[in-house]
Amino acid sequence: MKVVYAVTEEQEEYMNYLVRYFYTNVFPYYFADEQIEEFEKLRILLPDGEHVTYNGTMKEAFQIISALQSLITIIEYIGENGDYERYRYLFERNIDILRRYGITFPFMIEQFANKRRYPCSAYFPSSSKWLM
């Protein structure tokens, strides 16, 4: 008999927060709004309905959270410095962790090497609750 711990509601919320962070604070610096819209349609960073192996255990949630956090950190670093060769292994390793749980992240590290300085995107979070 094996005992596993179920993921907490807070962990599920944090995983969703990290996915939203990609769409609002990472992708707009590297992709056009039309591309990001296509990512949403393709369910990038969301579990694939057919190949999901995520069972909602605490261990799996921690692995997914750490993989998402690592990818964000790597992308934000190389976007500023352009030094991506050094982090290729970590980048691909974290993508493999996500893939293991049926989460799609079909990007190459080179796509994040040149961060746009002044992007204009509808995906950026609004700075206030009043949007004109």
Q: How are the elements arranged and paired?
A:
Elements: H1 9-26, H2 33-41, H3 58-81, H4 88-100
Protein name: YhcU family protein
InterPro entries: Uncharacterised_YhcU (IPR020355)
Organism: Saccharococcus caldoxylosilyticus
Question: What features would you describe in this structure?
Answer:
The relative contact order is 0.18. The model has no long low-confidence stretch (mean pLDDT 86). The protein has helices spanning 9-26, 33-41, 58-81, 88-100. It has one domain. The chain is mainly alpha-helical and 132 residues long.
Outline of the structure:
The protein is mostly helical and 132 residues long. It is built from 4 helices and no strands.
Structural class: mainly alpha
Tally of contiguous helical segments:
4
What is the approximate shape? globular
List low-confidence stretches: none
Question: In angstroms, what separates the terminal alpha carbons?
Answer: 58 Å
Alpha carbon gyration radius: 16 Å
InterPro entries: Uncharacterised_YhcU
Pfam families: DUF5365
Organism: Saccharococcus caldoxylosilyticus
Protein name: YhcU family protein
